[in-house]
Write a structure and sequence with these properties.
Blueprint lengths: L3 H4 L7 E6 L5 H6 L1 E2 L2 E2 L2 E2 L7 E5 L22 E5 L3 E2 L5 E2 L3 E2 L5 E2 L2 E3 L7 H16 L1 E10 L9 E6 H13 L16 H20 L83 H8 L17 H6 L14 H8 L15 H19 L43 E3 L4
Parallel strand pairs: 2-6, 11-14
Antiparallel strand pairs: 1-12, 3-4, 5-6, 7-8, 9-10, 12-13
Helix pairs in contact: 4-5, 5-9
């Protein structure tokens, strides 16, 4: 089985991303304007929620990669929301607030998945199914073989969960000619995924009108095997890796299947012939899960990240958490921490563009985010690295996270989770 950490280098250079549907019209693309109306005015300007702003960026048509300088290859005027307002049209509240005027604080508690009440557990899996089977009314997915010609752009509808998958796929594809990407192997790694989880939580709340929804975390240090790979949770799998028909996830069809990773083959929505695959522990080089001792040693690393800000650096919390800095005594495995969990599943989770197809992805990353939170508690003076030429494109402190609307800088999420409306319950 090809390893998760190696497949970062094998993804296609065609385009796919989530875009607000009002920004996919010919007029919006031709004018490079993404300022949808909220209650009758662009960006809710009449209600004081935001304004359509022309960002002061150095524009160029000489892009090496269409995701560079996000999102100015597509738009140069976008909504800039005021105060606690948020969303591509400023129609939502920032994370941690609710109410029509976004002036009511709102905090949820992410629980360990085994600690969910029966009602919480039923609702969680029901909402996952709903997000997979219902078309998003807000977002479209963009496909194109030539991003320099607007007439080749094709926008297609997708379910909210499939939009979620494509967002990760979009950010994880390497920059052309570099092998680096926007969500891994650099200082943005844990914060990009923090935003990613928050995006899904908020969209599910909007879709279901239930602001109590949260993504639980799976503490994979509590067992030496996958104790959620059963039909009470995410489904057991057989010797071929297929999920039991008794599980709702046996019917989930992946998009961006890894068989379509060859350069030049675009990932399109109707390539849905395969199934989620899992063979937990089936690869002898990744046949175990990280331990509580591994987590503690990770938290003890004092520096958030160090030059050269890549997968080779030592004494970096980010790189240790991500799983590239492997201890010499680490059970003769070829990955650690976050990466090891992906590789342990020996299937869909191993491959960057398909990893989110397996919903275990989100409970895994919720625990990764909890470890980040514990590290920030232990190192309160930590800061995001200052802009440097050695930091990967799109991961510098002031770069905008790819591919999120409205625009948000990478450094924004280097704060405690309570600032974004959530906290973690202990699972002791």
């Amino acid at each position: 089985m090809l390893q998760f950490v190696m497949l970062l280098l094998l993804l296609p250079n065609s385009l796919d991303a989530h875009f607000p549907k009002p920004c996919t019209t010919d007029e919006a693309l031709n004018t490079k304007t993404c300022c949808p109306e909220w209650e009758g005015s662009p960006c809710g300007v009449r209600a004081g929620r935001g304004e359509c702003d022309s960002y002061n960026k150095i524009q160029t048509t000489d892009y090496i990669d269409y995701r560079e300088n996000w999102p100015f290859h597509f738009y140069d005027s976008l909504c800039r929301c005021h105060g606690n307002f948020d969303g591509f049209d400023c129609g939502l509240c920032k994370h941690g607030f609710k109410g029509h005027h976004c002036n009511i604080t709102h905090t949820t508690e992410r629980k360990e998945i085994h600690s969910l009440t029966e009602e919480e557990k039923t609702k969680f899996f029901k909402y996952l199914e709903y997000s997979k089977t219902n078309i998003s009314s807000k977002y479209s997915i963009l496909t194109s073989n030539d991003t320099s010609i607007n007439s080749t752009l094709k926008f297609i509808n997708a379910s909210l969960y499939d939009v979620y998958i494509w967002m990760h796929y979009y950010a994880a594809k390497p920059l052309k000619g570099t092998g680096r990407n926007f969500a891994h192997e650099g200082p943005a790694f844990p914060f990009w995924h923090r935003m990613f989880l928050l995006f899904f939580e908020r969209e599910v709340r909007e879709m279901t009108s239930d602001d109590s929804f949260f993504i639980p975390y799976w503490n994979w240090t509590k067992s030496d095997h996958c104790d959620i790979c059963n039909n009470d949770y995410f489904g057991e799998s057989d010797a071929t890796g297929l999920i039991s028909p008794q599980s709702q996830f046996s019917k989930w069809k992946p998009i961006c299947d890894k068989d379509n990773n060859s350069l030049g083959i675009i990932c399109i929505q109707d390539l849905k012939e395969n199934s989620i695959l899992r063979n937990p522990g089936g690869d002898p080089t990744s046949n175990t899960l990280p331990t509580s001792s591994d987590v503690q040693k990770t938290i003890e690393v004092s520096e958030y990240d160090v030059r050269e800000y890549n997968r080779s650096v030592k004494h970096s919390f980010r790189n240790t958490l991500e799983g590239f800095d492997i201890p010499k005594d680490f059970r003769q495995l070829n990955s650690a921490m976050h990466n090891l969990v992906h590789n342990y599943f020996n299937g869909t989770m191993c491959d960057v563009p398909t990893a989110v197809n397996d919903p275990i992805f989100m409970v895994h990353h919720s625990f990764v985010d909890k470890i980040l939170e514990e590290w920030m508690d232990a190192h309160p003076d930590a800061t995001y690295p200052e802009n440097s030429d050695t930091i990967p494109e799109g991961q510098k402190a002031n770069d905008f996270m790819v591919p999120f609307f409205p625009l948000v800088q990478n450094k924004y999420f280097m704060d405690h989770s309570i600032a974004f409306g959530y906290k973690y319950a202990d699972d002791d």
